[in-house]
Design goal:
385 residues; alpha/beta; Aspartate Aminotransferase, domain 1; 2 domains; globular
């Protein structure tokens, strides 16, 4: 018996760099600073809220768009932080993690032949979703200087044409740790004003912006919010990445199209988790305190590498630190990351993996969302370099 030939929908897709590096870290008993997940527990009160929700009988299908109490809590948070008021009934949708929110946003608005502008280095889920929609990814590379990575808005503007359907932005940015400022959002508004171009704003690290800076959500800017799908993640905010619960906020007309796809590729999201998250959000302290929590870890990590031969790039947001290694080795990023994992016993991610053409900058990305003990162990090994 022979299995029929199946032409692939995603010929360029293989095993992700995160999976490969985590497997390599495990095989060599390396400290895993590659994949972006915490190694510390969430608040026990959140676990208690899930247990209470399950025992109270919240174990069947929730409404397709999400538990009403959670959508109301999300809308209240966005209004409080950014001043944008979304209707919980028609403009907030709970998703099975941020990746599903991103993919569904793309599938609901990108038609075959439409162009989608992405900013490289780019998070790895964007391009496959564009391909599945039949869209054409138009890549604009970030500018790299001594001040770190920044978006060259003049190149973004030059890439816009009559076929452009969507521009995807990510702030704070994975993998670079850069953040968009008010001037960046103003430049973006100038580009899309008077067009039918939509925006997809990946803001999963919204509560990880440091040094007193504020998160410049597109929600702060009505002119941008009216054409945007805004995505965030409870997994990142509450240290529960394995729960895979996120949300998208968008104007009613965009949300209606989003939900047409959402109801058939997911339909609904884990009920007791939603009920628990709604109750937990009554106290804003956990997300309001998150910048200070992670800034301390960032500073600990940066201080630990001060005497090494790594050159640290600015880390203004996310829980990632990018570092140049040219003073240590001239080899390619993927080879350096593998050597670092197998020989130094610390796993990192090559930033070249976030470029379609594997652009080399001599930079690797570390994740500092780890227990202090984990960071100290990694730093003891890295500081010798």
């Amino acid at each position: 018996m022979t299995t029929p030939f199946l032409p692939t929908r995603l010929p360029a897709v293989g095993t992700t760099i995160f999976t490969r590096m985590s497997a390599l870290a495990s095989a060599h008993e390396a400290v895993n600073l590659g994949q972006g997940f915490p190694d510390f527990p969430c608040d026990p009160a959140l676990l208690d809220a899930v247990d209470a929700a399950m025992r109270a009988g919240h174990n069947q299908y929730p409404p397709m768009a999400g538990v009403a109490a959670l959508r109301e809590a999300i809308a209240a948070k966005v209004a409080s932080l950014y001043g944008q008021r979304y209707d919980p009934a028609s403009e907030i949708t709970v998703t099975a993690g941020a990746t599903q929110a991103l993919t569904t946003s793309i599938l609901c608005c990108v038609h075959p032949g439409d162009e989608v502008i992405v900013i490289e280095p780019v998070y790895d889920s964007y391009l496959p979703a564009i391909a599945l929609a039949g869209g054409v990814a138009v890549r604009v590379q970030m500018r790299l200087s001594e001040q770190g990575f920044s978006v060259p808005w003049e190149r973004v503007a030059a890439a816009v044409n009559g076929r452009t359907r969507l521009i995807i932005i990510n702030t704070p940015h994975n993998p670079t740790g850069s953040v968009l400022r008010a001037a960046d959002l103003a430049a973006l508004a100038d580009i899309v004003r008077g067009t039918d171009v939509l925006l997809l704003s990946d803001e999963v690290y919204e509560h990880m912006v440091y040094d007193g800076q504020r998160h410049e959500s597109v929600c702060r800017y009505p002119e941008l919010a009216e054409r945007s799908f805004v995505v965030s993640s409870f997994g990142k905010t509450y240290h529960v990445t394995g729960w895979k619960v996120g949300y998208v906020a968008a104007p009613a007309a965009l949300s209606a199209e989003f939900r047409k796809v959402h109801q058939y590729n997911v339909f609904s999201v884990n009920t007791p988790m939603q009920v628990a998250l709604a109750a937990y959000m009554a106290d804003p302290a956990p997300y309001l305190e998150l910048p200070a929590f992670y800034q301390r870890k960032r500073d600990l990590f940066r201080e630990g590498l001060r005497g090494s031969r790594f050159t640290l790039l600015p880390a203004d947001g996310t829980y990632f630190q990018c570092a140049r290694y040219e003073a240590i080795s001239p080899i390619l990023e993927s080879d350096f990351a593998q050597w670092l994992t197998t020989e130094i016993k610390v796993a990192a991610i090559p930033v070249s993996a976030f470029y379609t053409d594997a652009t080399e900058s001599g930079i690797v990305r570390f994740c500092f969302a780890k227990q202090d003990e984990t960071l100290h162990l990694a730093l003891a090994r890295l500081a010798r370099l």
